[in-house]
Amino acid sequence: MIIILRENATEAQVDHVVKRVETLGFQAHLSKGTYRTVIGVIGDEEKLLAAPLAAIPGVAKVVPVMPAFKLASREAHPQPTVVDVAGTKIGGGHLGMIAGPCAVESEERMNDIAAAIKAAGANLLRGGAYKPRTSPYAFQGLGEEGLKILRRVGDAHGLPVVTEAVDPRHVELVAEYADMIQLGARNMQNFVLLTEVGKTHKPVLLKRGMAATVKDLMMSAEYVVAQGTTDVVLCERGVKGFDNACRNMLDIAAVPQIQQISHLPVIVDPSHATGRPELIPACALAAVAAGADGVHIEVHNCPEEAMSDGPQALLPEQYAEVMGQMKKVAAAVGKTW
Amino acid sequence: MIIILRENATEAQVDHVVKRVETLGFQAHLSKGTYRTVIGVIGDEEKLLAAPLAAIPGVAKVVPVMPAFKLASREAHPQPTVVDVAGTKIGGGHLGMIAGPCAVESEERMNDIAAAIKAAGANLLRGGAYKPRTSPYAFQGLGEEGLKILRRVGDAHGLPVVTEAVDPRHVELVAEYADMIQLGARNMQNFVLLTEVGKTHKPVLLKRGMAATVKDLMMSAEYVVAQGTTDVVLCERGVKGFDNACRNMLDIAAVPQIQQISHLPVIVDPSHATGRPELIPACALAAVAAGADGVHIEVHNCPEEAMSDGPQALLPEQYAEVMGQMKKVAAAVGKTW
Amino acid sequence: MIIILRENATEAQVDHVVKRVETLGFQAHLSKGTYRTVIGVIGDEEKLLAAPLAAIPGVAKVVPVMPAFKLASREAHPQPTVVDVAGTKIGGGHLGMIAGPCAVESEERMNDIAAAIKAAGANLLRGGAYKPRTSPYAFQGLGEEGLKILRRVGDAHGLPVVTEAVDPRHVELVAEYADMIQLGARNMQNFVLLTEVGKTHKPVLLKRGMAATVKDLMMSAEYVVAQGTTDVVLCERGVKGFDNACRNMLDIAAVPQIQQISHLPVIVDPSHATGRPELIPACALAAVAAGADGVHIEVHNCPEEAMSDGPQALLPEQYAEVMGQMKKVAAAVGKTW
Amino acid sequence: MIIILRENATEAQVDHVVKRVETLGFQAHLSKGTYRTVIGVIGDEEKLLAAPLAAIPGVAKVVPVMPAFKLASREAHPQPTVVDVAGTKIGGGHLGMIAGPCAVESEERMNDIAAAIKAAGANLLRGGAYKPRTSPYAFQGLGEEGLKILRRVGDAHGLPVVTEAVDPRHVELVAEYADMIQLGARNMQNFVLLTEVGKTHKPVLLKRGMAATVKDLMMSAEYVVAQGTTDVVLCERGVKGFDNACRNMLDIAAVPQIQQISHLPVIVDPSHATGRPELIPACALAAVAAGADGVHIEVHNCPEEAMSDGPQALLPEQYAEVMGQMKKVAAAVGKTW
């Protein structure tokens, strides 16, 4: 950690900072520049994070030099983690191809969609039983009934299943039915939920929040990993941008960024990132080329009747087509699924 | 609701949309322009929101004409709501002046701070017992012990108290001690928590999420109000901006915007909005002048020892000074507290 | 164009709007909904844009239904435009692979870099002679001397050259030496410069501004195209985002968006988009996979001595490597260069 | 300047950085921490900015400690600058109250508006003769004829006039007629124009670009000040935000930020910041309370006929009302005009 003092910091202020650093059990290393004094702090930075050094009079800025996430960092674990979701591998060259409707609506519909995505090559089935909806008047999911349908349909088609948990009181229930538990974008900093889900030691799909930096996402992953599991797959799904022509802005550069600072796999969700089916194929191909460890796409066989997020779903035949294209791009970058 | 068709929409597609609208129980009103066909939908728009009309082939855009929030809207309730928090009124010309440390740390410290803010004119005491922290390794609050301290200190100084709930399983407990329950920015779209807190019928302080539009904030307020209470105070506390010189960007225009579309009071939190004590006074004055129904400021008597958010707290004497200035600006715009 | 009236609009206000629309030479088509009145305006929307209908009392919102850019739109020109830059084709399946240093620094250095990128397969050489720099104290380019060096080096290696114009008074001079004129991000809405460059009828490389929506970019392209040329290549180079871990945020979805609404080719510049060499290869591959018509990469043989933007340049050997990878991805999506 | 090395930087890399710093004429001050090595660079940082130290292998990050703008900084000039625009003072407790239509449309209209704003207490008249418009088909201003009208009307009403320059070739012409030259948001980084306008030594109104950080704005001010004038007034006019309910997002915290780092006055333009007349009064009051050195408001006597930006203009009677309110708030914060 580096502490940069204000230009007009007095000697007494500098002394106070040095004393404070030493009181906290660290060494202070003073360096007087032409304009300013800088103090290098030597010791375990982790422990210093709790100390609000920036609040000391005379301090202009505190610059950490270590990542604040530890267990999720590449430094802690140089090899890429491969997450195994009931047989489907994600990471280390294996692509997790997740597809399905936004919400579980009925067993019949779920069956039809599962058959279609399986035929197209998907290796993980998604479907929400608990839906976090912006409006209190919108469809909120089928609850446990939805979980049961998802489980039966997944088993029938040989597809592991992923579904979202939104309430710490339901996490155990969700864990009973799901092979992988999703933590949604709106809950990325619901630390209570993160902790509860982490405790199940089930594979987790952690979606990036709409205003979360890559570092924020890593800190949330750290919450899960700190519960004793490294089976965490991160998901870039678009962040808030100023151009409202798209629902969100896909931050494709987050993929190589995450892979450089973390050992956890990272996939891309072009459905939520764009909200526009006609843009999904190009973004899905971009994700694979950029090195993503998988792609998450919403598929529905009758979008106009979908109970949630219909306008952004691909039709099964559109999904099959983009899967064919992704296969080729994956081969070009030395990956497969 | 208005449905704008694509330029190349076929007659069959137009017919399909019209039929679909009618099947859902609405009237369709066709209008053929020079370039495009537009369909006006007549009926209760609320019910239409669930129907993904944008997913129908040939549809270019769906434009709602009604606000999607109802109970929280100005249309539903033309007079401004005045929220009474154990005697402190917020709204309708009454300013809620909330102050206190980020977290409850100890009874002694809390007592000192409460005495200081009371002397400066604050009418509501804040302090977190459960802290949502970005890092799993940071101080997470004292829990129930913190609630007890807050309650005792509030009572001792005649200040109603507001504290945050972060877990639906603790809402009842928090409601036992608090006069007002805070829903934090990171939980603004934690709909499970919103609902649980709404059920207590306690006054609520709902903070705007970092990537939430004003409309998103209203939708979250609607979740609470839908539980049968209008005692909801909204809080603008800065949103994500591209200029990282500040922690967030204070969206001061949100104040008049909210007051025009909603009857709920809205206050401003310049502490989280800026994250920099030297910018707080100017932003606090701006808030009062812009018509905010209150100002929320973090105050700590030893920021460098604060266990959370120390660098952004004002000292008691700084708080007293800005309170004096706010008094004058409040008088200039015909308000008081 | 659709005019949505306020809920409480009076009959007199509605009449006034209708009359105003008719005075301007258009037909007004009234549609009374359950809550609001909507007026469809029939006629050439283009001409209506100048009339501030939103300013009329009682009007809530004006929704245009046609793109405001005409000559640059896909409707005006359904086939993709192929821009020919002195023999290098961009668009319609042909990729423009632009590379070179940020600034022309010396003939020797330029020669070395040109030889390297040519060997790696680049088909267009870039280099700035006039540099728009954030600081008035930074190197501003060699001016005409830089143009001469660029021309000679391009000719020596059989590479067409692209360079930026920043001053309307120098456009003619730049046009004498360059095969393609770049309009930089900071000048995307310098309409005087756009017009001046358009008049030369030289191929143009128009970079997206940091706060420009895709529609804003199209409007700026329209300025150039309105001067009588369709030889305009658009360039996505990252926009302002809230995560300052990268210099900008690459908006990869802009590529398919532009291709759907415009006939002009669009390329991607991962160098400026990320500002971090280690992220450039992944983003370059993503660009090709997403369907971009080319990729623009800054290359320097000694970044630490570069007079501008050194930290974001690839070394020649890094460029050669990513070119090899792009070749494979391009083949996977049926393109070549 | 502080250079933070990567955790895995080799001794050879550290040595190379040190040597490079010394070659450039500076002292390097090494500090080996628990995890990383940090190098403090001692000497005139200004000169170092051109050297791309971040490009050296092994370097993780370069942290400047001095502001990159010098002449515009508070350090260079501790007292606030008061800009005198033909008798109207801006800064140091004096408020510049600028009003007028977006564009000069006709002498009669200009006269009517000038009379109204003068009566309301404005002390500076604005009106554009050259308009930078997003669409090439929109009204681009009356040119020199507009300048003449503005001059005559300003003289008739005893109001100094401010108008925008958009083309370096017209700067001299604009300087002949104007008392203050505006540099618009879209041209904030048109460095050629900044320099040309700076050379006239006329008072300048420099508007913040839509994606410009406060530091970017200061760097652009430095371009003007470097031409030998400190008569530069900065203008916060809203930046790009993700909530498109408003045209832009007013960054009210920019006001105290600028006043702390610079001696130049800063005013606020709530018209462009919001684009919605009903939000302008609240934002104007906020600006005065926040300590702005003036307020810029667009006023038009018939917004529905305005040739540019009509929907965001206040009517003269609305302007008079908000001026009355601002007078009271200004008095509350000890200012006047």
TrEMBL record, chains A, B, C, D:
Gene it is expressed from: aroF_3
Coiled-coil positions: none
Protein name: Phospho-2-dehydro-3-deoxyheptonate aldolase
GO MF annotation list: 3-deoxy-7-phosphoheptulonate synthase activity; aldehyde-lyase activity
Enzyme Commission (EC) number: 2.5.1.54
UniProt cross-references to Gene3D superfamilies, sorted A to Z: Aldolase class I, Phospho-2-dehydro-3-deoxyheptonate aldolase, domain 1
Domain of life assignment: Bacteria
Annotated DAHP synthetase I/KDSA domain residues: 87-328
Record keywords: Transferase
Keyword field contains Lipid metabolism: no
Residue ranges annotated for the DAHP synthase ferredoxin-like domain, each copy included: 1-66
Species: Pirellulimonas nuda
BP GO terms, sorted: aromatic amino acid family biosynthetic process
